[in-house]
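Journal club side-thread
Mid-discussion, someone asked how the predicted structure for our own chain would compare to the paper's figures. Pasting it here so we can look after the session.
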Amino acid sequence: MIANEFVIELEDNPGELAEVCDMLGSNNINMKAIATDRVGHQRFIRILVDDDKKAKKLLDDADLIYTTNHVVVKTMDDTPNSLTKAARALGKKGINIEAVYLLSRSGKKVNLVFSLDDAQQGARVLKD
């Protein structure tokens, strides 16, 4: 399944993540997945939300710097090497993985978010 991901650039200050979370939550936007990154002094959060249109408007109104990407959400067996198999399959097709993070886990299944340089092709590869 292909979904939209927001990658939000934050200041390197305490409380920045809380502000974004509060802004979204106060407007009844639920985060379905979140991951944080730090590159040098720059911080980023990657989120999937339940209302993309409303989140975009809030981020725009708050003058936050962000990008949107298509990502692939993949349900996989929660077993050793299942991620290895997916990563190898993507690599063999020349698809670069930019980020992977957990969406949910239930029983013996795990839902992962794959941020790829080609989400459409990645979705086809991961479908198998």
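Post-session note: The helical segments are 16-26, 52-61, 82-92, 119-127.
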